[in-house]
Amino acid sequence: MDKISSLPDEVLVKAVSTSLLSKRREVLWMWLPKLEYRCSDFSVPQGQMLREFIDLNLPLHKALESLRLKFSHGAIGGIKPKYITLWVSIAVLLCVRELSLKLFSFANSQTKLPCNLYVSKSLVILKLEDDIFVSVHRMVCLPSLKTLSLRRVTYSCENSLHQLLSKCPVLEDLFVERDKIDNLEKLIVMVKSLQRLTLKMCSPCYLDGIMINTPLKYLEVTDHRLESDSEDENDSDSPIFSYSFEDMPKLEEAGFVLTFQNIKRYFGSITSVTRLSLCLGVYIEPALYSEGIVFNHLKHLKICSCDSSWSILLARLLKDSPNLREIEAYLIDYHPDRRVEFPNKWDSALNSVPRCLLSSVETFKWTEMYALQNQMDTATILFAPSYAADTVDVMIQELSLSSRGSKTCQLIFG
């Protein structure tokens, strides 16, 4: 009986069509540049069949460029972490350029990476996710690595990440996500070649601080950690918020989604941005950025309206962004229940009309709008789908009768 024919659909490589599973498969299989194996909720026999298939075919490849393994919620025994380690080692020996591992609750222990991975000369893209143990080899050197993604992995010690990054001389894109105690303490990113950095820290996630010293063009930070009320720095349950962001004169785009962290710790380092996206958990005056900071290059601003005081920051940014062209008020996807009325402190936050509203702003877009109490000069307004048609008609009529900044100004409703 042909074992390949008996394999379940989810374990077959999607890049291989039915026409390839013929008598010529032994030859054609060796020349496939990209392999992807994904399997979830598999039984022990299915895992054993898949393991035998990969064991037999992977070492025979002649032109392997990309290997992706995605296993989750499988029966223990069919595929063990040691097999993943072996396959990764073989892929490195075959000079693979892209390696992606996503291993979630498919075994009773984490998967360790082989030593030869840390000295690969061919690897350009490396993506690791979930149940993976990163133990950086002391001779680590990844001279070709340009993209690195580390999502919810566990490190062998607090210096593992810093040691790894220090040996990636051409790294351009870094993604680090943490959501548990992963043996990291201070998150240090010092890579001269880095252009894009994405950081995600969920709660619970304990971190002594963040230090970034690299000439970035793109920065995204999501931090959902809860600020402790404890004043005792020796309290192990109290996260210490220590930010150190060097100036980023080349930064073009930045986005921040923060919970209970103030923005003054790093706003002075991002004044060169042309695009800025914000969702903050603290909008009170002491948490805002310092007076005197001006965003001369900012042209596109997005701000989440999930808090009743979000207008305080918006008014501040309008005042300090003289060349702003586009403004968008929106709600992040996972904030569907935090809809609030348009700014309850708008008038008190602005003593005069900001310069950008008189000279440069071309578009104001407001999605998930629930009420309007003030005038807008240029606006595209999208109403929440839950609104009744008659309610929308009344709001459109009221808005249409509002005064305009100029005779050419138009309101567009969607």
H/E series, N to C? HHEHEHEEEEEEHEEEEEEEEEHEHHEEHE
Q: Please report the total strand number as a whole number.
A: 21
Radius of gyration: 26 Å
Distance between the termini: 60 Å
Poorly predicted regions are: 11-21, 228-240, 371-377
Structural class: alpha/beta
Tell me, rounded to a whole number, the average pLDDT.
79
Helix content range of the residues, please? 10-25%
Q: Count the helices. How many?
A: 9
Strand content: 25-35%
Strand order of the largest sheet: 1-2-3-5-7-9-11-13-15-16-17-18-19-20-21
Largest sheet features? 15 strands, parallel
Q: How would the global form be characterised?
A: elongated
How would you characterize this protein structure?
The protein is of the alpha/beta class. The chain has a domain of 120 residues. The strands form 3 sheets. The chain has a 15-stranded parallel beta sheet, with helices on one face. It has a 3-stranded parallel beta sheet with strand order 4-6-8. α3 links the parallel β1 and β2. The N and C termini lie far apart (60 Å).
Top keywords for this entry?
3-stranded parallel beta sheet; FBL13/AtMIF1-like; 414 residues; FBD domain-containing protein; FBD; 25% strand; single chain; alpha/beta; 15-stranded parallel beta sheet; LRR_FXL15/At3g58940/PEG3-like
